[in-house]
Amino acid sequence: MEIKVLGPGCAQCAQTEKLVREVVATKGGNIVVQKVSDFKEMMAAGVMSTPAVVIDGVVKCTGRIPSKEEISTWIENAGNEGGSD
Amino acid sequence: MTMPTTPSKLHPNPHNAPLWNLGYFAIVTSIATLWWLAYTHIMPVSHWLVFTLWGFAPGSHLGLSLEFFLYDTAKILLLLVLLIYALAWIRVSLKVELVRDFLAGKRRGLGYFLGAFFGAITPFCSCSSIPLFLGFTTARIPMGITMSFLITSPLINEIAVVLLWSLLGWKFTITYVLVGMLAGILGGFVMDELKVQRWLQPFILEAMEKEPTQQYVHDSQKKHGPTIQQRHTFAYNETASIFQRVWKWVIIGVGIGAALHGFVPENWFAQNLGAGEWWSVPASVLIGIPLYSNVTGIIPIMESLLTKGLPMGTTLAFCMSAVAASIPEVMMLRQIMTIKLQATFIGYLWIIFTLVGWLFNSVGPHILS
Fold it and tell me: How many Å apart are CA B101 and CA B141, to the nearest integer?
């Protein structure tokens, strides 16, 4: 699974990345977290307000800091839909 | 991850939502009461602190400046916390993606107005300006409409309105909002007339050749509408992050304001930089443009400048130009705009704010009274 945190590098984006990494650390498994600050990539994903969280190419939220519970749910659902386990 | 996915997992905390809501409202009510108590006692407390506890002579410059500083800082910070929280609570569901879809395909004339209008009501973080710009442009929204949005966005927001209202009165507030909107609407029109689109960085023009991106965002809040807990979380985060960003600007702004208040003699500006000096307006806009400030910091300074007799037009022109553009912002926009476009943009701001300054220097005395 690949999680991308999109944002040019403001405080909110950094906070989102931190939360995502914290949740991922409790999950284990093969999850790659990546911080993206390239505007072209944001444009390609159709993201217009940051921070944004993208899991396996699906935009999960934009323009706000998600809660840990939300991130956790997204990861679990994405894992089930992908049929990886 | 072997747990089956139950529908309840879509809600972050479904088990005791009613209980949580009850507790939440109880806490909100008590905090609101405390807030009100604090707000109504700022004046007597700052007076008492300065002149009784610290023993400044009544009427001394330093004492008056200090009292003004304490009073204004406390008042503004309290108002800010209340407003950011309340508005974020209501505004969870307003998303720039919705604004984009709404603006796409609008006629030009109406489009500029709507662009400026949404610029005023959407929350804006300058680090979001580039993704937003790209999102609008690739959805084939005319560039002028996007420019209207970008010009109005930093100039007008709920924080500015509240600060202006409480410090300078409703007439000034309405004038400010109207002028800000007009600057945005006219800016969009001028940019489209000049066909500035050709001066965007090439990669954007390439992206515009392709299909417009309108990816649906699978935001969990969109399906159910946000719960009270989600609203609170959003509003709390919003308040914390905006507050952390602006509190120092408030203190700096009020500090400069207080220094002007206590030490610059009454009507000093009127005698030295009065409305009669035509060049003072374009000059102050030139100084304002590269300066970095946000609305929150500049409004307390505006108040002091005005009470010291700086003409209203000059004050508006200076403050709006300080807010609308700055060196850091121009450097960031460089990634999507060529030099030509940036020069046009800054040239427009200079001309429009100078005109605003001249206009209000002649009619100002009727508005501020």
Answer: 9
**Burial status of residue B252 (CB atoms within 10 A of its CB: 0-12, 13-18, 19 or more):** middle
Contacts of A69 in chain B (CB under 8 A): 12-13
Crossing angle between the packed helical segments A11-27 and A68-82, to the nearest 10 degrees: 50
Structural domains of chain A ordered from first start:
2-79 (3.40.30.10)
ipTM of the prediction: 0.72
What residues in A contact B206, CB-CB < 8 Å?
none
Cβ proximity of A43 and B134 under 8 Å: yes
Find all residues with CB under 8 Å of B85, minimum gap 6, and list them. B235, B236, B238, B239
Could you read off the pLDDT tens digit of each residue along chain B, which spans 369 residues? Answer: 344 444 433 444 455 678 888 899 999 999 999 999 999 999 899 889 888 888 888 878 788 888 888 888 888 888 888 888 888 888 777 777 778 888 887 777 888 999 898 888 776 666 677 888 888 888 888 889 989 988 888 888 777 787 787 777 888 889 889 999 999 999 999 999 999 888 988 888 887 777 655 555 545 445 556 788 878 888 888 888 778 877 887 888 788 877 777 677 666 666 666 656 778 888 888 888 887 766 777 888 888 888 777 888 888 888 888 888 777 778 878 888 899 999 999 999 999 999 999 888 887 666 665
For A:19-48, CB contacts with B below 8 A are 27, 29, 39-40, 42-48
Phi, psi of A36 (to 5 degrees): -115, 120
Q: Is A61 part of the annotated catalytic residue set?
A: no
pTM of the model: 0.74
